[in-house]
Design a protein that fits this description.
The chain is of the alpha+beta class and 762 residues long. It has 23 helices and 13 strands. The protein is elongated, with a radius of gyration of 31 Å. The two termini are 39 Å apart.
């Protein structure tokens, strides 16, 4: 089937490219128009219904019509001279607030036909006055997705307008929380992120130029991946909108990073093999070479892509909604890229042919010697040394994971205006005043007011509670809400401990008879998220590992080889988590690593890292199918594959490493980049080939197809006959000294059968 797909794509190469271009243009418009409509920035909306904070959110929406809004912000109003607010000041504040609330903010005309128009009137509410009388708080809420650039522009217009109005009244306005903090962070990191983005693209282009010495080989993979990324984004956004599915806010950026990385990886695999095909067959035309290349690499690329799809698709069984929607979204995107790898990329190769490598001519002559050849010889010649060395490195890094702790604290933020306003509020009021919690009570009949007040009194006496607001009732008085202000910041680990411990205990003990009582708010939501994530990790890991093992079994048709690859990627995962723990938890003295990091590493490092193991494993099997000694096959596989894997690993690590520029994604970016480098450079190029050299053809047990090669392995190299249909590859200078004095490839075309001196391997 793969051969039929790739053959059709290379025969109808212009049609294939044209279809992808049209799809890229059309679905890019769909993606840009609908992606922000399809995403939800409310973490609480993704919690299963059985959790306490999710139950509170349902009461809030059903009984009070109040849905927590991530766009809500807090406005701090104070006199420009720093004095206390007078009664006249507070009256003037109220007048300006009413005026601003009646003023419609006109948004810019949508750039795309399906984009939302964010024009609206802001929702404003007068808040409390500081105990020392120096400022007053006002609540602000806007309708829409706070990650949408269109809504962010609306917020900026309101912010500038409000500052102008209050400045005219002798006051200054500061904004914090919700969309205010988000916009300030984006503005603070905009330049650095642009530089990182440019540097990432520059790294990809530079690596390809250094490897292929051709502008087309450097730019076409990048252009193709951007085109396919537009198709994938549009497909995901359209699917979500069609079936009314809310996507996590991280989906757009993750799709971009993942597809850029793996797409260029797959294009590089094809490019290296295409170049090899053209070099070995000087008279072949471009279409035939592209078809042959895609047929040879297609199986490995398909298995690699399906491994990633399987790993992410397992998130569909998670209970936490952010995981449940993120996994299938990435899986669909990878399927789109896999289809492009089997159709668009071979079609591009069929069109460009040898011009892909212009103006370089060095590729036409196979390089003898070189790092890849020396590495292949060294690993094949001394496998025990390289196995022990790899295990020592991975074991040392893995030891750091022994004391790992999960942290649910928010990442460190830049010193933005929003952060400084929050600190100013915290100096005069409880730290939780900016982001209060709410207890919702609901019964089957009107609530007993004394019982509700008793719950409020119990909460006032609870550890960590700074203030409890009077209860508010709905129209039927069968539901009530009680505001709770914590002494600590709502995003801190201490707040989560207070809410999940003494606060919820007090609610359970003092709730009115016959009524339900639940608490919601930032700390309450993240306390429930932590519990849901722990459950999902125990469920997702074994399912994903099982699916990956099944794909490897089908590809490699062996029981031993998949086990070798799974052990290798398992060690890579442990080493990456250990390194992240050593850096962030111990060296930087953080409470622990980000609570989602183990799952992210498992999905990206194990799934993406398996790509490289599949590529090297498939090439080792291909070389071992020839009538040559097993160790020589390993050396040849490394020699041919190391440049592609090393280049692809550096490109993918650079893509993910760009995430480390932002404080919010620093841990994920660093850890994923390190894990991919370990997978590419240590596991795929050293550990797996060294184990293959030790195991020989028994690595493919119980396959019986290579029995005649096993017989050859037990003969002296000089006994190997020339075999038609198995053209001998050229070998690096120095083969003779590696495999024994006096050995020369031209005298022993089939190569040696064992280690130094030609000793047969038994």
């Amino acid at each position: 089937m793969i051969r039929s797909i790739t053959s059709f794509a290379t025969r109808r190469r212009w049609l294939t490219i044209g279809v992808w271009v049209l799809l890229g243009i059309a679905l890019s418009v769909v993606g840009q128009s609908l992606m922000y409509k399809a995403t939800d920035s409310q973490t609480g909306d993704f919690l299963p219904k059985g959790y306490d904070s999710a139950a509170a959110l349902r009461i809030a929406e059903e009984e009070f019509g109040a849905k927590p809004d991530a766009n809500a912000a807090t406005v701090l109003l104070s006199r420009t001279d720093g004095k206390k607010l007078t009664a006249a000041d507070r009256a003037r504040i109220a007048d300006i607030v009413r005026e601003l609330a009646d003023r419609r903010i006109e948004a810019a005309k949508p750039e795309m036909p399906l984009m939302e128009d964010h024009s609206q009137k802001p929702r404003l509410g007068i808040g409390t006055v500081a105990p020392d009388g120096t400022f007053q708080l006002v609540s602000l809420s806007l309708k829409g997705n706070m990650n949408d650039p269109g809504l962010q522009e609306v917020y900026k217009d309101f912010r500038d307008d409000a500052r102008k109005e209050f400045t005219g009244a002798g006051m200054k306005a500061g904004f914090t929380g919700g969309i205010a903090s988000s916009v300030d962070s984006i503005e603070a990191s905009k330049e650095s992120e642009q530089l990182v983005h440019i540097a990432t693209i520059g790294l990809i282009v530079l690596l390809n130029v250094l490897v292929f010495r051709s502008p087309l080989a450097a730019l076409l993979p990048l252009i193709a991946c951007v085109l396919v990324g537009g198709v994938a984004s549009g497909a995901v956004a359209g699917f979500a909108e069609l079936f009314d599915i809310s996507l996590d806010a991280s989906v757009p950026s993750l799709i971009t990073v993942v597809l850029l990385g793996i797409g260029i990886d797959y294009f590089l695999f094809l490019l290296f093999r295409f170049r090899e095909e053209l070099r070995n067959n000087p008279g072949v035309n471009a279409r035939e070479a592209a078809a042959t290349t895609a047929a040879k690499v297609g199986g490995a690329v398909t298995s690699a892509g399906l491994t990633i799809v399987a790993a992410f698709a397992t998130l569909g069984v998670a209970s936490f909604g952010q995981f449940r929607v993120l996994g299938p979204a990435i899986a669909v995107s990878v399927l789109v890229m896999l289809l492009a790898s089997l159709t668009l990329m071979p079609a591009i190769l069929a069109v460009t042919g040898r011009a892909m490598f212009w103006p370089s001519k060095a590729w036409q002559r196979e390089r003898r010697g070189g790092f890849a050849a020396r590495l292949g010889l060294a690993v094949a010649h001394r496998p025990v040394r390289y196995v022990l060395g790899s295990l020592a490195l991975l074991g040392l890094l893995s030891a750091g994971a022994l004391g790992v702790k999960m942290s649910y604290d928010m990442p460190e933020q830049d010193r933005t205006d929003a952060v400084q306003v929050a600190e100013e509020i915290a100096r005069s009021m409880p730290a939780g005043a900016v982001d209060p919690h709410t207890v919702y009570v609901r019964g089957d009949k009107p609530l007993d007011e004394r019982a509700v007040n008793g719950l409020g009194d119990a909460l006032r006496k609870t550890e960590g509670v700074a203030q409890v607001l009077p209860a508010r009732y709905d129209a039927d008085r069968d539901a009530a809400s009680i505001g709770v202000v914590l002494k600590v910041g709502s995003e801190s680990s201490k707040a989560r401990e207070l809410v999940s411990g003494p606060v919820r205990a007090a609610i359970a003990e003092h709730r009115p008879d016959g009524a339900d009582a639940h608490i919601t708010g930032t700390a309450a939501i993240y306390a429930d998220v932590s519990e849901a994530v722990e459950k999902d990790l125990r469920l997702v890991f074994p399912i994903a590992a099982g699916l990956i093992a099944l794909i490897l079994l089908l590809l490699l048709r062996s029981l031993v080889a998949p086990l070798v690859l799974l052990v290798a990627v398992g060690l890579g995962f442990a080493a990456t988590l250990g390194a992240a723990t050593l850096l962030f938890q111990h060296m930087l003295d953080r409470p622990g690593v980000l609570f989602t990091l183990p799952l992210v590493l498992f999905l990206f490092v194990v799934a993406l890292g398996t790509d490289y193991n599949i590529l090297i494993g498939d090439r080792i099997r291909e070389e071992m199918a020839k009538p040559v000694p097993a160790r020589r096959a390993v050396a040849e596989a490394v020699r041919h594959t190391a440049p592609a894997i090393a280049t692809a690993g550096l490109v993918l690590a650079g893509s993910f490493g760009s995430l480390a520029a932002s404080p919010a994604t620093q841990e994920v970016g660093f850890s994923t980049a390190l894990g991919i480098l370990l997978s590419a450079l240590v596991l795929s190029l050293v550990l797996v080939p060294a184990l293959a050299a030790l195991l020989g053809r028994s690595m493919w047990w119980p396959s019986r197809g290579d029995r005649h090669q096993q017989q050859h392995d037990q003969r002296d190299g000089s006994e190997y006959p020339q075999h038609q249909g198995h053209p001998e590859p050229s070998y690096a200078t120095g083969y003779g000294t590696e495999y024994g004095a006096g050995y020369a490839p031209e005298r022993h075309p089939a190569g040696p059968s064992g280690p130094v001196g030609g000793t047969p391997r038994r």
